[in-house]
């Protein structure tokens, strides 16, 4: 696609609207569950453990267990959500609208969470950006949300896992919410005895310590009942576990090229680098074929690069570029990819120095514009294409043009308009290979025979609705 066409598409203005949708009821067991029992989870990486924990402890606002919108927006554009009478914290305290506001404002003060951009339509525009101000207020048992602009994607924002309701218990200091489980002093999850919904059917959920890298082995040794695994980790289970695809938790690994660094600041060099990496071989040798080459963050179907290929080395044959590659030291898949990229590019006459670091430190360095090439893993945490892409690009310095497209798209309601806006925004960072997708890694849910783990509408495991059949 030419730059002229991209600019023309970017400048198009859409005026549309969207009503708030509702989630279907959660699935119920198809066989009579056995009450009680426990499950032990292969903890995996921190992001996977956190996502599973939230599904058990927290609750989204648009949930029959917490609240439902009582009526369409009023003349002022305000939405009213009546808190369910059965919504209760594990200490027996009923959830109040002020609890939701307090939890969200606590998130606004945490730079590691996504509240700031998710709640942007509700933020106090003239004052403290850590306060919702008049954007959210309590009216008896009703939570009133009043966006300062048209917000057709409000249901998608409220459904994002970072806005699910949970808090640090004022008495125990552990995480709790109106969900079916609460965190205990041992780190395990125990039932919320005041949970008003159906379930939980289990007595406890325990986490295996990190370091159990061979998931199939711990299943074979009868030490685990559930795990989310990737790549070759999904092989070798035999009869010890059933393994099924979990597309909602697939990951796409990509390189982000910092704009200021020597060598990397040349678009021709970036595009040449992007074409040197053999994605199919990486999938085959590193991940046992459980994935696919990636040329897009938002579309698995993309089979060609968004940049024009560069066949010949764009620098002198006597030059030896030296480039730093940063990756998350706690992510074994990123580490394996980084080593393969290093070996591949060394064969092309480029010296790559690996620079592993903690995930949070890498995010902080990115925010300061530091580093050269950064290897990251992306998992869409919402099915809305505009919000999913914005969540990733907002942490990348130099993605301002793409973000401006997404900012204009937030007021569009038509799903096709939002999909096209996400496509054009991504093209803005793909054209010159600023963002270089590498591999799309498949996620798999491993469960011991007899354990049933239903999925919600978005394909996420529901621990609070899981049960043993024997």
Helix-strand blueprint:
Layout: H1 3-10, E1 38-42, H2 46-57, E2 67-69, E3 79-83, H3 97-108, H4 115-118, E4 136-139, E5 142-145, H5 154-159, E6 167-168, E7 175-176, E8 181-183, E9 189-191, E10 204-208, H6 215-220, E11 226-230, E12 242-245, E13 251-257, H7 267-276, H8 279-286, E14 291-293, E15 322-328, H9 332-347, E16 351-357, H10 359-367, E17 373-378, H11 385-393, H12 400-409, H13 415-430, E18 435-441, E19 443-447, E20 451-452, E21 467-468
Parallel strand pairs: 1-10, 1-11, 15-16, 15-17
Antiparallel strand pairs: 2-3, 3-5, 4-5, 6-7, 8-9, 11-19, 12-19, 13-17, 13-18, 14-18, 20-21
Helix pairs in contact: 11-12, 12-13
Give the strand order, joined by hyphens, for the main sheet: 14-18-13-17-15-16
**Could you say how many structural domains there are in total?**
3
- The percentage of residues in β strands lies in 15-25%
Largest beta-sheet details:
6 strands, mixed
Number of helices: 13
**Fourth CATH level, the homologous superfamily of the largest domain:** Dipeptide-binding Protein, Domain 3
The structure class reads alpha+beta
CATH A-level architecture of the largest domain:
Roll
Q: List low-confidence stretches.
A: 1-27
Q: Assign an overall shape.
A: globular
- Helicity, in percent? 25-40%
Which fold name corresponds to the CATH topology of the largest domain?
A: Dipeptide-binding Protein, domain 3
Output mean pLDDT: 86
Which CATH class of the largest domain applies here?
A: Alpha Beta
Rg from Cα: 23 Å
- Tell me the number of strands: 21
Distance between the termini: 56 Å
